[in-house]
Amino acid sequence: MTQIHVRAQPGDVAPSVLLPGDPNRARHIAETYLDGARAYTTHRGLLGYTGTYRGVPVSVQTTGMGCPSAAIVAEELARLGATTLIRVGTLGGATPTVAPADLVIATAAVPNDGTTRQLLDGAPYAPAASFDVVHAAVVAARALDVPHHVGLVMTEDAFYASTPAHARLWASRGVLGFEMEASAIFLVAALRGIRAGCLTACSNDIGDPQLVPEDVLAGGVDRMVRVALEATVTLHATDSAAAAVAG
């Protein structure tokens, strides 16, 4: 049956799904990087497309902004048969060592949001990316010679609440940057027994309210998407080899 928000049928969605927050970015990814992309949903502006990349089926599904929307989308994608969810978006850098447009590959997300708290009934928890996804992304970034950082991010609800002091405090605790969806995606994936990852391009330093120039950020987004797609190819090959051995 179709889902309430992601209006698609089983079979419409590929096993591997890239998750941008912005519907315009979803459309751009589908039209720029995928072969034979077709839209399977436009409901509520949560644009979704499926095509292929280097022969591997890939979907691109908008999540909207924030954990509540991302959790709904992740849950419904799992019900539709997705097995790997990779967020592709932007983050604010917590430290100047994360340069404008740099790629950040998250290993886990500090859950400073309300959605994971409700899903867990307040229990302490550490939402983490799947090792296979992190490893495939790091291998792809190295192969493509993409500047990148690997480590913690923080997921927050209030976009304008972050301050330079808040950023530097959490940077001293190992946080590379702040974004708004990863913790919920990681948690829903764990609850549903599927894989998840998060790749982001740095849009600004929290100490500097100005976003990086559009052309610079566009370059970072392009590199991020290419790394994510190459990671899906690696994961697909690994899964296919494992299935062949098991069969």
From TrEMBL:
It catalyses: uridine + phosphate = alpha-D-ribose 1-phosphate + uracil. Gene3D superfamilies: Nucleoside phosphorylase domain. Keywords: Glycosyltransferase, Transferase. Residues 17-210 form the Nucleoside phosphorylase domain. Its EC number is 2.4.2.3. The keyword Transferase applies. Belongs to the PNP/UDP phosphorylase family. This is Uridine phosphorylase. The lineage of its organism: Bacteria, Thermotogati, Deinococcota, Deinococci, Deinococcales.
